[in-house]
Amino acid sequence: MSLCCLLILVAVIPMTSGTNPGVKVKLTEKGLEYGRQLGMVSIQQKLKSIKVPDISGKQKVSPIGKVRYSLSNMQIVNVGLPKSAVDLVPGTGVKLSIGNAFISLHGNWRVKYLRVIKDRGSFDLNVKGLTISTSIAVKSDETGRPAVSSVNCAATVGSVSIKFHGGASWLYNLFKKFVNKALRNALQKQICPLVANAVSDLNPHLKTLNVLAKVDKYAEIEYSMVSSPTVSKSSIDLSLKGEFYNIGKHREPPFSPAAFYLPPQVNNMLYIGMSAYTANSAGFAYNTAGALSLYITDDMIPQSSPIRLTTRTFGAFIPQIAKRFPGLMMKLLLKTEKAPAVTFEPNNVTIQASAAVTAYAIQPNATLSPLFVLNLETSVSAKVFVSGMRLAGAVTLNKMDLTLRTSYVGDFQVRSLDSILQLVLKVVVIPKVNVQLAKGYPLPAIGKMKLVKTQLQVLKDYMLIGTDVEFTG
Length: 473
Description:
This protein is α+β, with helices and mostly antiparallel strands. It is built from 9 helices and 23 strands. Strands 2, 3, 4, 5, 6, 7 and 8 form a 7-stranded antiparallel β-sheet that branches. Strands 15, 16, 17, 18, 19, 20 and 21 form a 7-stranded antiparallel β-sheet that branches. Helix 1 packs across helix 2. The termini are close together. Residues about 1-15 have low confidence and may be disordered.
């Protein structure tokens, strides 16, 4: 993946400012070092593809006279990049420097002099003290993803030495004097374009950035940047939108993200801060899509439970149900009244949800007769964890509160239904919710990115993921 880990997080993309992000990303010096290591592999391979053109000419050599010479079939046999560095330029971007590099070539030589005398052989050429310096510019392409290019590249060759195999010793002086400069110029002209190609080769990989990532059939999450990165001496901070939308319908929620700040931690390569705004935008999107509703029938209740969804069971608490609708099965409709509210406190994620519970008796002809409607207020605690490249979770019930909204069977004590509704929540609703939460939603990523040594902390108003990264292809 070359410098993908580095460049995607260094992107200086013109964006609108003034909008708080839902997600923040911090790339530390440790992450930059990993990006440098990946980049050197790519650049080394590019430099191995240098094609040095044949060099030929003629020169008067005393006392032999005019000598025609040529160097041909020059091939790179080795490239070494023992010293390199990536430096952050605060407020500007990134500078890549390579020093003390070397290139070894092998080729053939040929001379002709005194009209009829010819000689030939092979040679090994070593280029030492090679230095390369380039800045990396990033702009937004037509899809809103970053596109990279190399600018202000400079390459210099320290020294060139040639060892000839075959031929007379005077050949060395001839080639050293008149060919050294030609070889130096040929190499210097090749290096910067190849470095530029190595950077440009990243663009197909950068197009894999999940700026808009599908979660499921209801929702997708947007990770576009809301402002340019903040580049300091030790890190790069990115601000991403981090907002859930309904598939194909980008409707903004009736609330805005609050500002939050990542702590100055540097032990991991990467830190991702996911705000409560992101979680609440998910609740808004799913509620808007009508996905937060569930019909509950008796076959969802474990067979071992003495409580059944029948008019006989409910009639034990509300006698008029058993009298008016004897021996019928029942169905409950649980539907949220508004988007759930998610709050993050240190080591604690809480979700408050308001819903209506409508109870029906199922008539023999399958029509539904409404019995009552309850207001249900619930509080659940969530455990959040990273699974692969997704953020997942699971919830447990804290408490619930029931009040009567409408009754079609006369007055009754709502509290008498607490045990039934708690059972329904614990054995039917929450397990179904947890199945969906376990699937998780995608984190911002490019290509075959893998998170390793991942840790997650829940803090005030956001959760913090600290992780190292690997690219597997």
